[in-house]
Amino acid sequence: MQTLINRLMTALVALAMAAGVQAAEIALLDQNYVLFNSTAAQEATAALKQEFAEEEQQVQTLEQSIRQLQSKAKTDADIMTDEEKTQLQSDLQQKARNREQLVRQLQQVQNERRSAFIRQHQPLMAKAIEQAVDKDQFDIIIDKQAVIYHRNSLDITEAVLAEFNKLYETQQEESGN
Predict the structure, then answer these.
(1) What b/e readout covers 111-134, taking b as 16+ CB neighbours within 10 angstroms?
(2) What's residue 147's pLDDT?
(3) Domains of the chain
(4) 71-129 pLDDT, tens per residue?
(5) Rg of the chain on CA atoms, in Å
(6) What is the 3-state secondary structure (H, E, C) of the chain?
(7) Which residues pair with 155 in a beta bridge?
(8) In sequence order, which residues have a C-beta less than 8 Å from that of residue 16 and are 6 or more positions away?
């Protein structure tokens, strides 16, 4: 839905320009790129990896155990009793369930943290965009993902990323982090 709205807005801007309306200064911006390639995102990602390193190791251990059991099932199938095969299959299923549950939990936490990160840094993003608009006097900023073709000269993503990082560093210094 948001993409449709973005495309309609892009079409309206193009139509207005074609109709002889005063040319507007237009820029393109990829907000997701700015947010998730920022210093803040790198720090948050490092903290998240450190916080959940043990769980990630558990996932890897379970995956290795599953591979070993699968290998054993293939190589020893001819010499195993039906009871051993049943037990092996049961162990495999249990480990696979444990792995899936752990992966789901990690993904849920990651999604929650991603949403919290966006909420926390949205005001800083708005300020970085505002400063870019004030500096270069843009009339319209369009989501880069909603545009089919553009000249690179219209893209202000890297400039906004630099401004975002500068504002973030200032914010961190002021808060003593």
Answers:
(1) eebeeebeeebeebbeebbebbbe
(2) 87
(3) 2-175 (3.30.910.20)
(4) 998 999 889 889 999 999 999 999 999 999 999 999 999 999 999 999 999 999 999 99
(5) 25
(6) CHHHHHHHHHHHHHHHHHCCCCCCCEEEECHHHHHHCCHHHHHHHHHHHHHCHHHHHHHHHHHHHHHHHHHHHHHCCCCCCHHHHHHHHHHHHHHHHHHHHHHHHHHHHHHHHHHHHHHHHHHHHHHHHHHHHHHHCCCEEEEHHHCCCCCHHHECHHHHHHHHHHHHHHHHHHHCC
(7) 28
(8) 24
pTM over 0.85, yes/no:
no
Q: Are 64 and 95 in contact (CB under 8 A)?
A: no
How remote is the C-alpha of 140 from its chain's centroid? 25
The residue count of the chain comes to: 177
